[in-house]
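Sequence only, no structure available. Ideas?
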Amino acid sequence: MSGWLRWRHGKRAANTPLAPFYSDPPINLRKTVADSELLALDFETSGLNEKQDRLLSMGWVLISHGRIRMATAGHCVIRSDDRSVGQSATVHGLLDADLVHGLSLAEAVEPLLRLIRGRALVVHYAPIENGFLQHACHHLYGVPLPLQIIDTLAIEAQRRAHIHDSQGALRLHACRERYGLPRYKAHNAAVDALACAELLLAQVAHIGGQDNVTLGDLLRRSR
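Reply:
I predicted one. Tokens follow.
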């Protein structure tokens, strides 16, 4: 984002929960994983198109100084807007009845923004979380959310660029298996956030270790 565009968006973001993201200093990408705080995040959605489909649930957990802080783990579901989850329920297991008493979109996003502030996100396949979160911020506040996103799928794809893998080899559970991590029940946002956090730490150990790998290194590998 250019300086001028950031200034313009920052003016529009004033008095919204996005204001600190435009006024805070940028994340120091020279910090190592051992010296950083990251937020692992996972969304469950009704489909893959953020403009047509719905954000159904969020799960997150903090990675602080190279350790997963289970006490920070959280999960929420987002209230129905009278559209059925349809066939997507066979993937994530959430039914329309599960969402009736969920949070509104604003009630779910605003606390999440407080968790994200000052931290890079860790996700597995960034287009989903980034797409749905940006769409939510545009809908609620009218401006994009400046983010630094570390993508464990992209990191794994780069590490295996010269290896012929079978279809599905970059799915979260398949990536975890290569590092000897246990298999969890998939498609629960809280569990998948934890699974993503564990995968990242395993990848960092193989790349060079928490004391040597910087946030900038991980972001470059996430492109």
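The chain has one domain: 35-221.
Hope that gets you unstuck.
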